[in-house]
User: Which sequence fits this backbone?
């Protein structure tokens, strides 16, 4: 039977960055990443991959700032497909009500593309924004680790149990793996039978996530526009020849194997209703999109929690898995009693 020091269940962007952080913190450790599909092929493949320095709580703002620095460093080191983008925050509120949420909020600016046509709406510059091909990022991070990490794709964990200081993982391939430590980074697959009972006390729920595509080639320099009051944004994707419109879909308790990949008629109807409040002229160009789901926590903060000694859950990123992945990884390594490679901001320090 194979034995490893650390098994990471989930090869999405969170699992990939945890693997990188773990081997950097403990170079002699044996690490395996187990992914039932291909690396980055799950929720990461549907992600908009947007990073903006924002958070509804002090912890999430600190995680966002920490992650921004890590992504900037990794983008250069690994030549990751990350593109910087100018950004504007639009809101009917005043700067005192909006600025605490955004770490990079700057001067008031003219609304781009008449997004802020509603009376009383204002706009501000937002620094530090980028977007990424998240599936490619996850794959490239893991590709750089394959000389130090065993990456098992097409490998489902069908059973998980603990015995004698080890965790036994039964694999769909027929193999068994004993791991001293295990990280569960399953994305929205929190209800998998192998760990559903362990995860249930965390009170997580899975929510549908929808982003519509607005046809029309973005102009050079078009900014990311964040609609603060609606928790929505429009992202120009010149390399794909369209815009992406992400809005809040309020459909809960879905399952990742039961969602998508095709949109339902109501998805576009909802997207057009929200978009019409900002840019009615673009509603007819909102004709396609992407759909999936993510795990959400009760307090809307990511969860890093020890479920059993040496067994840590990492995720429930509330739709921000890419944006917060490096900070989630740092907290996870700390929970495993490994020394993280970066300095963890104080708000990230927390007890298991």
Assistant:
């Amino acid at each position: 039977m194979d034995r490893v020091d650390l098994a990471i269940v989930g090869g999405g962007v969170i699992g990939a960055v945890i693997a990188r952080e773990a081997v950097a913190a403990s170079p002699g450790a044996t690490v395996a990443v187990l992914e039932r599909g291909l690396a980055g092929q799950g929720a990461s493949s549907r992600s908009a991959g947007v990073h903006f320095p924002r958070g509804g709580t002090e912890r999430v703002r600190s995680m966002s700032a920490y992650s921004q620095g890590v992504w900037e460093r990794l983008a250069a080191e690994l030549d990751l497909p990350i593109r910087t983008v100018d950004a504007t925050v639009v809101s009917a509120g005043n700067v005192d009500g909006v600025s605490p949420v955004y770490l990079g909020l700057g001067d008031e600016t003219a609304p781009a593309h008449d997004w802020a046509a509603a009376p009383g709406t204002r706009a501000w510059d937002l620094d530090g924004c980028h977007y990424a091909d998240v599936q490619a990022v996850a794959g490239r991070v893991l590709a750089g680790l394959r000389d130090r990490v065993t990456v098992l794709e097409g490998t489902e964990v069908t059973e998980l149990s603990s015995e004698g200081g080890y965790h036994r993982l039964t694999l769909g391939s027929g193999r068994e793996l004993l791991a001293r430590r295990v990280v569960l980074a399953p994305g929205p697959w929190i209800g998998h039978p192998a760990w559903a009972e362990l995860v249930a006390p965390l009170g997580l729920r899975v929510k549908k996530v929808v982003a519509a595509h607005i046809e029309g080639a973005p102009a050079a320099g078009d900014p990311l526009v964040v609609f603060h009051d609606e928790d929505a944004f429009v992202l120009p994707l010149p390399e794909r020849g369209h815009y992406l419109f992400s809005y809040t879909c309020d459909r809960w308790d879905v399952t990742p194997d039961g969602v998508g990949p095709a949109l339902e008629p109501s998805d576009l109807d909802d997207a057009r209703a929200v978009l019409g409040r900002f840019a009615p002229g673009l509603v007819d160009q909102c004709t396609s999109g992407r759909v999936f789901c993510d795990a959400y926590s009760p307090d809307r903060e990511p969860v890093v929690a020890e479920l059993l000694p040496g067994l840590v859950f990492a995720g429930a990123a509330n739709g921000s898995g890419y944006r917060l992945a490096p900070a989630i990884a740092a907290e996870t390594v700390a929970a495993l009693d490994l020394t993280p490679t970066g300095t963890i901001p104080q708000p990230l320090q927390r007890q298991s």
